[in-house]
Design a protein that fits this description.
Radius of gyration: 35 Å
Oligomer: single chain
Shape: rod-shaped
Structural class: mainly alpha
Number of strands: 0
Length: 78
C-alpha cells in the first residue's frame, strides 16, 4: 500500500465525530427559510417589474402625440 492510502484507512478507522441529534431538523428549517426568502424576493422583483411596465405604458400613452381634430368634417363623396 502506498502512504496516502494508508493515511485514508487510518482516518476512516478512527471514531467519527458526534453529530447533533437535531442537525437534520435545523438544516431543513434553514432550507425552508432560505426558500421562502428567495420566493419573496422573486415576487417583489416581479411586482416591481410589472409596476415599471405599467408606468412606462401610462407615460407613453400620456406623451404620445395626438392628431389635431380636423377643422371641417370629411366629405361623404356624394
Amino acid at each position: 500500500m502506498d502512504r496516502k492510502e494508508e493515511q485514508v484507512r487510518r482516518l476512516l478507522d478512527t471514531p467519527h465525530p458526534a453529530v447533533a441529534t437535531d442537525l437534520a431538523a435545523r438544516a431543513a428549517d434553514r432550507g425552508r427559510r432560505l426558500l421562502r426568502r428567495r420566493r419573496s424576493a422573486h415576487l417583489v422583483l416581479w411586482v416591481l417589474l410589472l409596476a415599471a411596465v405599467i408606468t412606462a405604458v401610462v407615460l407613453l400613452a400620456m406623451w404620445w402625440p395626438t392628431q389635431d381634430p380636423l377643422d371641417t368634417t370629411p366629405s361623404t363623396g356624394f
